[in-house]
Design brief:
Blueprint (H helix, E strand, L loop, with lengths): L34 E6 L7 H14 L3 E5 L2 H7 L2 E4 L26 H14 L4 E5 L1 H12 L4 E5 L15 H22 L2 E6 L6 H10 L3 E3 L7 H14 L5 E6 L5 H12 L3 E5 L11 H19 L5 E6 L2 E6 H6 L6 H10 L1
Parallel strand pairs: 1-2, 1-4, 4-5, 5-10, 6-8, 6-9, 7-8
Antiparallel strand pairs: 2-3, 10-11
Helix pairs in contact: 1-9, 2-3, 5-6
This protein binds 6-O-phosphono-beta-D-fructofuranose.
Length: 351
């Protein structure tokens, strides 16, 4: 049974309340759980369906009842959930998106919203919640943990920007989608002797941009983590390239580092080289997951069920040193991720 610590009229500020409520949970005092919920939250990512499927199948085969919550935390506080059985998840492994649907819930960013969500779990008899999503979703999960709801986080975002884990579900598919699109853009840039400026996703993170930049042999790379000098890092690189005999150019910009449209216009104005912008946008979030995303989603979610069966709550499933394990949610959310400077240096050496 849940032990919700606060009611709607008496809830401390969820951002400041410390975790001393739940880290004292002694597994030997907790009865075996019977029913848990699963939701997907934030931006969707290829492999989320594989993750839900794995939660459902490994959960049921370990003796749990699984309830699927639709539209993320929004559906949680509204009580939009129903039981899922093993047959309900057949033919989902290879599908992009998330059949549970997802949302970015504004209500859930308030303490009243969090308590409403926790109360709704009580109504449906859910004793723990598996949250598949990125950092924003993990903050929602942490807020629930802080009011007494046992949670487990599974990393699902194309951005690979969660500090506690080396890998997030969806990253590989998104990078491959971007790479294929950029290869095609290179063909036409080459035919027309143009510069192709391609905006990839990543408001705060340049991991997709960096790896795709390496994989497509781009000339320039602009990412939010590293300030750039437009004349030196873009114009100079393109003009040097032209002097060496290059006749087409690929510039990759992560969305948080600038607008492809503006950058293309400036390149054309300053260099006289025709430049065309392309925004890959949400294309990168769709599509059938790659082998890596299917296997990571399946194994990470199976690990989440293991945590629940072992009564190790408020954990984030992570890939660490290439192995799937878990870390405390409070500690995980304190960690900071930095861009791999060595890889970035190598990108520029190759350009
Ligand atoms: O977090 C995933 C992500 O795709 C980011 O790369 C991007 O900045 C953001 O979501 C876009 O969000 P939305 O779907 O709300 O446009």
């Amino acid at each position: 049974m849940l032990n919700i610590l606060y009611d709607e009229t008496n809830v401390p500020d969820i951002d400041t309340l410390r975790a001393d409520n739940y880290d004292k949970i002694d597994p030997s005092t907790v009865q075996d759980l019977k029913r848990i919920g699963v939701l997907t939250s934030g931006g969707d990512a290829p492999g989320m369906n594989a993750a839900i499927r794995s939660v459902v199948r490994t959960g049921i085969n370990s003796g749990l009842e699984i309830f699927g919550v639709t539209r993320g935390f929004h559906g949680l506080w509204k009580g939009e959930m129903s039981q899922i059985n093993t047959r309900d998840v057949s033919e989902t492994l290879q599908r992009g998106g998330t059949f549970l649907m997802t949302a970015r819930s504004k209500t859930f960013m308030t303490k009243e919203g969090v308590i409403k969500g926790a109360r709704m779990m009580e109504v449906y008899g859910l004793e723990a919640l598996i949250v598949i999503g990125g950092d924003g979703s993990y903050k929602g999960a942490r807020a629930l943990a802080r009011v007494g709801v046992p949670v487990i986080g599974v990393p699902g975002t194309i951005d690979n920007d969660i500090a506690s884990t080396e890998y997030t579900i969806g990253y590989d598919t998104a990078m491959n989608t971007a790479m294929e699109a950029i290869d095609k853009l290179r063909d036409t840039a080459s035919s027309h002797e143009r510069c192709s400026v391609i905006e990839v996703m990543g408001r705060h993170a340049g991991y997709i941009a960096l790896n795709v930049g390496i994989a497509t042999g781009a000339e320039c790379l602009l990412i939010p983590e590293v300030p750039y000098d437009f004349d030196k890092d873009v114009i100079r690189v393109i003009l040097d390239g032209r002097n060496k005999g290059k006749r087409h150019y690929i510039v990759i910009v992560a969305e948080g580092a600038g607008s492809a449209t503006d950058i293309a216009a400036r390149i054309e104005e300053v260099t006289g080289i025709e430049a065309r912008p392309t925004i890959l946008g949400h294309l990168q979030r769709g599509g059938s997951p790659t082998l890596r995303d299917r296997t990571m989603a399946t194994l990470m979610s199976a690990h989440a069920i293991e945590c629940i069966k072992e009564k190790r709550f408020n954990r984030l499933v992570v890939l660490k040193d290439g192995k799937i394990t878990d870390v405390d949610i409070e500690e995980g959310l304190e960690m900071k991720k930095t861009i791999n400077q060595k890889e970035l240096d190598k990108f520029w050496l190759l350009s």
